[in-house]
UniProtKB/TrEMBL annotation:
Coiled coil: none annotated. Gene3D superfamilies: 3.40.1280.10. This is tRNA (guanine-N(1)-)-methyltransferase C-terminal domain-containing protein. InterPro entries: Alpha/beta_knot_MTases, RNA_MeTrfase_C_dom, tRNA_m1G_MTases_N. It comes from the Bacteria. Pfam families: Methyltrn_RNA_4. Residues 5-184 form the tRNA (guanine-N(1)-)-methyltransferase C-terminal domain.
Length: 192
């Protein structure tokens, strides 16, 4: 990607369960690995794991340390490089504040959802927006997706990934990879 102004956030709170209640979800370490690998592949500047649960933060830090400081990083330097992108924070607001301090630029927040949203921006529109100097953080939900309140508090909502047969329940790591690939492709088509 032409500008190094894109961040990702994997939200574990506030997310919804299948009944629509707001909950905090548990980490899935494979999500951390696969999203970090997609992030580095597509030139993402940083990847935030957002959870207020201290035991989950400890788990995240243990996984990161194993692959960046421990034997995992020695045995697999590519994984080490990817997991070095991960930052663990308690809230999405903490992530936005860190990004703002890092780049000294406005931070644009983008929610993703598997549901249709009335004012959703397309991938092509998002790729075009990324050409600005602002920082952009795309939030992805775990469990059954981010709470409606969280989504509505973001600056933009991105169109959902659509398949060909109406089935729409991708793993979050698959959705991240698809969206990053499409953004990268559209940025190149814009002449980046």
């Amino acid at each position: 990607m032409s500008k190094n102004n894109l961040y990702l956030a994997l939200i574990h709170y506030p997310v919804s369960n299948k009944k629509g209640n707001t909950i905090a979800s548990a980490l899935t370490t494979i999500d951390m690995h696969d999203i970090a690998r997609a992030a580095i592949t597509f030139g993402v500047r940083g990847f935030y794991v957002v959870t207020p649960l201290m035991d989950q933060q400890v788990l995240a830090h243990e996984v990161i340390a194993h692959w960046t400081e421990g034997m995992g990083g020695v045995l697999n330097p590519f994984r080490k490089q990817a997991l070095e992108l991960i930052r663990v924070v308690s809230t999405f607001e903490d992530a936005v504040e860190e990004i703002k301090n890092e780049r000294r630029a406005q931070v644009v927040t983008i929610a993703t959802t598997a549901a249709s949203h009335e004012n959703a921006v397309t991938i092509k529109q998002m790729a075009h927006r990324l050409e600005s100097d602002a920082s952009h953080v795309i939030a992805f939900g775990t469990a059954w997706g981010m709470s409606l309140e969280f989504i509505e508090n973001c600056d933009f909502v991105m169109e959902p990934v659509q398949g060909i047969n109406g089935y729409n329940h991708l793993s979050v790591r698959s959705a991240v990879s698809i969206i990053l690939d499409r953004i990268c492709h559209d940025r190149q088509c814009l002449g980046s």
